Every structure is written in structure tokens, then in C-alpha cells.
Amino acid sequence: MHDMIRKTLATAALALLAAPMTYAMETAPAAPVASTATASASTLRPALLTAPGLLKADEFKETDVWGRIRSGYAIPDIDNSLVARHTQAYSVRPDSLKRISGRASPYLYHIVQELEKRGMPTELALLPVIESAFNPQALSTASAAGLWQFVPGTGKDYDLKQNMFKDERRGVLASTDAALTYLQRLYTMFGDWQLALAAYNWGEGNVQRAIKKNQALGKGTDFESLAELMPAETRNYVPKLQAVKNIVANPAQYNVALPAIDNQPYFTAIDKTSDIDVAVAAQLAEMSLDEFRALNPQFKKPVITGGEKTKILLPKENAEKFHLNLAQWGRNLSTWTTHKITGARVSIASLASKFGTTPEIIRQANNIPAKSTVSAGSTILVPKVSASNAGDIADNIIENAVVAFEAERSASKRVKASSGSRYKSKAEARTSKNRIARNTSSKRKHR
Q: Taking 90 as the threshold, does the pLDDT of residue 366 lie above it?
């Protein structure tokens, strides 16, 4: 029975290899998707969804992740002018695709593995090309962050922690799990992967309203029938994914050379039992800071907090080095603690002096803008200066700490009067001081 199912799936997968694919631009804004369901694809997908784990890498005998992705294509193709335009745009910029592929190489195996476990179409592994160009530090004007571009609200809906110390919307493991769960939920809601993708970009409520509007008018409710009701970004979103699919399906046809990505795990997760500085963790793993942060982009501060609940991702060989070096370390793993600002108008210089460091280090550790200071009630990161604060940062501080900034007050200056021999009164001097203005981050509506 298993052999028969495997042969059926293999035949269907081979048939799908002929389907054109989509491509995404590193510099172009994300655009919506257009999709049309076909009977053959809709028949195949439920079979895959009910048999997760049947499609294994060793069954494909693939040595490259790109081939593994091709083998699992299952979303019906679309072929229209938007697809042609985006395919052309990507293919004439092979260097851009090469850079995106290089950034994707540490993450793609894990994403494909998770898609196969859930029985989901493997071309969804290409979605971060559209969303973020596979840059985990990507941040949109709508405050969407990470590979999968979660806005804060949706991130919280899918249990992605966002606090002063970390933002799991950027974390590879957590954000991928959340994105695939969200996409599965949307597919269950609409029964159509193209509409699910449109909802991922535009919001399920908007797609539902568009469906109802077309139903009332006696029109179709597939992606392409609804496209005219969608904003330009969503209308282009699925065609962009289709364009990337087309290029990945047959790179030579488009004169694109995709860098090989080994079909094996790039990283492993190791447990962390106490606070550790990012610099120390990278040193123990014998990695550069940039390499370490590429796998652990969720950590926002120079110290990784969270005790046993937090994992660090490292390439396998570096994980072995980490454990060996850690056993011989013999020093504090973390040099940072927190300090709560209780009074108003505390200068950065005075804070630096109190904690034996420089204003530049205080500003850098806490992302304090130039010519700003921290408001009363804020919690900031400071160097440890005594044995009394040698322990880990407490969980309640990690979860609840907030920081706010305000403009620094200029020092009181004696201002010469017009005669040049007298100074303005104290009241006049007070009115000449800079007013304090709080910085507030702009918010945009969740998609």
C-alpha cells in the first residue's frame, strides 16, 4: 500500500515539474498573488495534506535543496501578463537572485523540512523571496519584520514573543512555525492556496469580503476573478511567487545560476542555561558576529536572556566547538544587567559614569538616538559592576521592561541681552530652553 501511494505521489510530483515557476525581486515591493485552482492540483494537495512525512529527501535522492523544492510543487500555476513581467524582471537581475539565494542558504533546508512534515506545497519555501528577500532583519514601513514579515499584532496572535530583548518575528524557528501555521489556517479557511496567499498579504477579512461581493454579483471567486478588487500589492503577490517558481523550475531557461544549497541541515539548536553575551556566544562557537547574528537575528541586545527557554542556532561543527570552549571558559558568560530609571532628566553621561563605561556604549546597547536621553520609568541595559547583580536578568523584567526616549535638555546658558552687558532673566532663560519631545514610533494598520 505504501509503495502504491509513493508511486502515485511521485507521478504527480513529476507532472508538476513541468509547471512554470515564479520569481521575486530583491528591491521590488512585495506584491499580491493571483491564483486559479485546477482539478488535478486540488486533487493532489489533499492527498499530500493527509499524508505528511511521506515525501522524504532520501526518496527523492536530491543532493540540492532547489531540486527538493521543485519536486514538491503543488500550487496551481497561473500564466498572465503580471507573471511574465515579474519573471522578466527577476531574470534580468541574476546577481540579485544570487544574493537572495546566498542569504536563503542557511534557512531553506529547515523551511522545506517543515513544509514536508505538514504536507504543504514546497514552493511556499520561496515566499520569503517575495516578503523579505530572505533578510531576517527586514523591516517594512508597516512594521512587518523578519523572513515572513509578521506585523506586531499577527506575531502576537501566533505566540511570537516581542519584548525589549528579543523579537521572535525575526527568529528562524519560531517565525517559520508561525508562518506555516498561519498559511495552513488560511488554506483551511479558503480551500485554495492562491486565496490563502492573498489573505496572507491582504488579510483574511478583506479576501472574505471580496468573495462575498463577487458572489452577490454572480462572478467567480478564484484569485484571478477577485484580483480587480485587490490592492496592487496583493494583485501582484501570487504572480511574483509564480515568477520565482518559474525560474527555480528551470534556471537555465532564464540564464540564471542558482547557487547550490546542500540538502542537509545547516544548523542545530543548542540549549542555553544562563544569560550569555552575543559576543561571547560567537567567540565560543568560533564564528564572526555577523555569522552568529544571521542564525540568531531575534536577539535585539548584546546579551541573550531567557534561561532554558531560549535556544541558540549554530552550524553543527560550530556547536561542537561551542560546547568544547564553554567547558574551558571559566569566566562570566554575561557582562550585562538592567537598571531602571527612576528620576527625570538623567543624562547618558551620568549613567555611563555610574556604571563605569562610556556614553557611546550605553547608547549603542540601548539604541538611544543621538541628542536623546531615557525617560523616567524606563529600563535600560548597563554593564555589571558588582557581585550583587551577577545573576541572570529576571523573567519579569524580560517580559515587562520598556524604554522610552526624550530629547536631552540643553544646559542652562546665560544669554546676553541686546546691550551686550546684561543677561536675560531666569524666566526668560527658561523659555529659551528646548522643549522635551517624546519620540513615538509610527504605526501602520496591520495588513
A: yes
Same domain, 381 and 407: yes
Q: What is the DSSP string of 189-253?
A: HHS-HHHHHHHHHH-HHHHHHHHHHHHHTT---SHHHHGGGS-HHHHHHHHHHHHHHHHHH-GGG
Residue 445: burial class (beta carbons within 10 Å; 0-12, 13-18, 19+): exposed
Residue 412, in any domain of the structure: yes
Among residues 295, 234, 317, the alpha carbon closest in space to that of 109 is found at 295
Q: Are 15 and 73 in contact (CB under 8 A)?
A: no
Nearest-Å Rg of the Cα atoms of the chain is: 26
Question: Is residue 3 pLDDT above 60, yes or no?
Answer: no
Number of domains in the chain: 3
Kind and range of the H or E run holding 374? strand 372-374
- Taking CA 34 as the corner, what is the angle to CA 32 and CA 37, rounded to the nearest 5 degrees? 145
The per-residue b/e assignment along 397-432, b for 16 or more CB within 10 angstroms, e otherwise, is bbeebebebbebeeeeeeeeeeeeeeebeeeeeeee
What is the distance between the alpha carbons of residues 111 and 104, in angstroms, rounded to a whole number? 10
* CB-CB contact of 319 with 356 (8 Å): no
Structure confidence by residue, pLDDT tens digits, 243-261: 999 999 999 999 999 999 9
| AA letter at 361 | I
Cell, residue 393: 536578568
Q: How much is the pTM? A: 0.79
63 pLDDT band, cuts 50/70/90, is confident
Lowest mean pLDDT of 20-24, 244-248, 284-288, name the range: 20-24
pLDDT tens-digit map of 162-212: 999 999 999 999 999 999 999 999 999 999 999 999 999 999 999 999 999
* CB 181, CB 158: distance < 8 Å: yes
* Residues identified as active-site: 131
Confidence of residue 418 (pLDDT cuts 50, 70, 90): very low
Q: Is 171 helix (H, G, I), strand (E, B) or coil?
A: coil
Determine how many CB atoms are found less than 10 A away from the CB of residue 3. 7
Q: What is the domain-level CATH number for residue 177? A: 1.10.530.10
Are the C-beta atoms of 270 and 311 separated by less than 8 Å? yes
Instruction: Answer yes or no: is 260 within a domain.
Output: no
Q: Which residues pair with 312 in a beta bridge?
A: 270
